[in-house]
TrEMBL record:
Gene3D superfamilies, sorted: NAD(P)-binding Rossmann-like Domain
GO molecular function term, any single one: oxidoreductase activity, acting on the CH-OH group of donors, NAD or NADP as acceptor
Family: Belongs to the short-chain dehydrogenases/reductases (SDR) family.
Limits of the Ketoreductase domain: 14-190
Native species: Natrinema versiforme JCM 10478
Lineage, uppermost ranks: Archaea, Methanobacteriati, Methanobacteriota, Stenosarchaea group, Halobacteria
Protein name per UniProt: Short-chain dehydrogenase/reductase SDR
Pfam families tied to this protein: adh_short_C2 (PF13561)
Any one of the GO BP annotations: fatty acid elongation
Length: 257
């Protein structure tokens, strides 16, 4: 019998890599992990944003490294893996939070638009798992950021919706192959305010009012509200949780009215 001693809901002492970690939800997760005592490398394609986020991580007294990556290029993910192993001494947690979106109808979407979205949002998730899993230690945790749209369809987002459905199916598939050493889960956020969509969801807009009204918690989420579920999935408290999708949507998706 295992005796309960203290809450294992912590990432303190873990070594994490956050892909798409210099903006939006990924950045909130990277800074939240650092705040809780994890060493964190937050990466994206922009050298300037990598540097800014690394400076914020360092200010929290933990280790980091500065490296860019593009999830459409497997070599760049491998370079991040090597940097994490060298600079942090290993990898316990990987978060795939990179994003790409294209608004077009099913009828009008072009091959280029479809491929752009799925290359980043779905193939990118696969490449992240392929690149990092071989270097992850026992007790490792991969967290893929999906979306409510994987379960609830929306007009004019066919590639994004299909990619996120694929992310959830891939998460389940990978969780079977990587067990028992590495757990693979997804978080499906609902409507979250990030710098990119702050105008779309601005208070007073019709869209914002409709979302607030339909959401049992009565509002859209702040990006920091995705951090707690990520800490749980990354932590040893989730040691028996794998292949799951944690929906973080204020009750939106199962609210009848
Ligand atoms: N904001 C929301 O309401 C919401 C809701 C559900 C799901 N999501 C998902 O959350 C994740 C983060 O989205 P966000 O809203 O924080 O957006 P964001 O644009 O702020 O963050 C996306 C990050 O991905 C990086 N990125 C884009 N293409 C990349 C590439 N080829 N290689 C490496 N990095 C790349 C960007 O530089 C950025 O750092 C995405 O997967 C998105 O689909 C967001």
């Amino acid at each position: 019998m295992v005796e309960y001693q203290h809450s294992p809901v912590t990432v303190s002492g873990k070594r994490a890599v956050v892909i798409g970690g210099t903006s939006g939800i990924g950045q909130a997760i990277a800074l939240g992990f650092a705040e809780e005592g994890a060493d964190v490398i937050a990466t994206s394609r922009s050298e300037e944003k990598v540097d800014e986020t690394a400076t914020e991580i360092e200010a929290r007294g933990v280790e980091t490294a500065r490296i860019t990556c593009d999830v459409t290029e497997p070599d760049s993910l491998e370079a991040v893996r090597e940097t994490a192993v060298e600079e942090l001494g290993g990898i316990d947690v990987v978060v795939a939070s990179q994003g790409a979106i294209s608004r077009a109808s099913v009828q009008d979407i072009t091959d280029e638009e479809w491929d752009f979205v799925t290359d980043v949002a779905l193939d990118g998730v696969r490449r992240v798992t392929q690149a990092f899993a071989p270097a992850m230690d026992e007790g490792g945790s991969i967290i893929n950021i999906s979306s409510l749209t994987a379960q609830l369809s929306m007009a004019n987002l066919p590639a994004y919706t299909a990619a996120k459905g694929g992310v959830e199916a891939f998460t389940r598939a990978a969780s079977k192959e990587l067990a028992p050493d590495i757990r693979v889960n997804a978080i499906a956020p609902g409507f979250v305010i990030t710098p990119q969509n702050a105008d779309t969801y601005a208070e007073g807009t019709e869209k914002r009012e409709r979302i607030d009204e339909r959401t049992p918690i009565g509002r859209v989420a702040e990006r920091e509200e995705i951090v707690g579920p990520a800490i749980f999935l990354a932590s040893d408290a989730a040691s028996f949780v794998t292949g799951e999708v944690v929906t973080v949507d204020g009750g939106f998706s199962d609210s009848a009215f």
